[in-house]
Structure formats: structure tokens, C-alpha cells
Amino acid sequence: MDVTQTHGAFSWSELMTPDPQAAIAFYGALFGWTSDNVDMGTGPYHLLKVGDTAVAGVMGMPPDAPPGMPPMWGCYVTVDDIDATARRCTELGGQVLMPPTDIPTVGRMAVLKDPQGAVLSAMTYVHDD
């Protein structure tokens, strides 16, 4: 199964933290992960890898993060159509915290909150078919 093409599959994990280098060192020592820096056009982004396979990402806190926002891991779920998923989230009583947004070369994503308050991201990935 390709998790980036399977609707409903958890496909990516990402850490937002004020000190990406300290987090990379910690998780490298804890799990043996290595890291590569990539340019996503929004500042430094670090891919955490097991061998040659990227398993997660690390980024600094976004400049518009609320004051005092703690570091946190987030997860992404693959969807066939992020715009339809965002609309459906609202119809079901959830909230769209960040509307569908293009991530160049990756896909289109949104941040959603369920009626109980849990937050996750959903992504429709770009594929070179």
C-alpha cells in the first residue's frame, strides 16, 4: 500500500518545535534517525530518516504561531480531495483551522479539528503519474 495514494491512510508525521536541531539530536539518539535538510520554500525543513526512507519531518515554529504554543507532533491523513474533505469536516460539526493550502511539489493540505477538539491534518498528494 502506498500511503500517499490511499484515502484514509496515515501518511506523514511532523514535529513543530522552537529548536529543531535539539529535537533532531534527541530523536537521532533515541531512534537512530538521521536527517536531511530540504528547501520547502518556507524556511528550513528537516526530513527524519530510517536508512534511506524519510519517516517524518521537523520544522521550526511558524512565525504566526500563538504565543506559548508548545512543541507538538502532528499527523497527516491522505485524502482523495482535500477541498471536499474540508467541506465534509464542517458538515459533520468539525472545524477547518487552516483552509486547503497548496504545498509546492508535495500537494494540498488542510488542518482540521473534530467536534471533540482533536486536531489533525489531511493531504491530497501530488503524484507523477
Short structural summary:
By secondary structure, this protein is α+β, with helices and mostly antiparallel strands. It is 17% helix and 46% strand.
Beta-strand percentage range: over 45%
**Biggest β-sheet, characterized?**
8 strands, mixed
Strands ordered across the widest β-sheet: 2-3-4-1-5-8-7-6
Task: Please state the average pLDDT score.
Answer: 93
How large is the radius of gyration?
15 Å
Uncertain segments are none
List the helices and strands and how they pair.
Blueprint (H helix, E strand, L loop, with lengths): L9 E8 L2 H12 L2 E6 L4 E7 L2 E8 L11 E7 L3 H10 L3 E9 L3 E7 L5 E7 L4
Parallel strand pairs: 1-4, 5-8
Antiparallel strand pairs: 1-5, 2-3, 3-4, 6-7, 7-8
Notes on the structure:
17% of the residues lie in helices and 46% in strands. The protein is α+β, with helices and mostly antiparallel strands and 129 residues long. It has an eight-stranded mixed β-sheet, with helices on one face. It is globular, with a radius of gyration of 15 Å. The chain has two helices and eight strands; from the N terminus they run βαββββαβββ.
Task: Offer a few descriptive terms.
alpha+beta, 129 residues, eight-stranded mixed beta sheet, 2 helices, globular
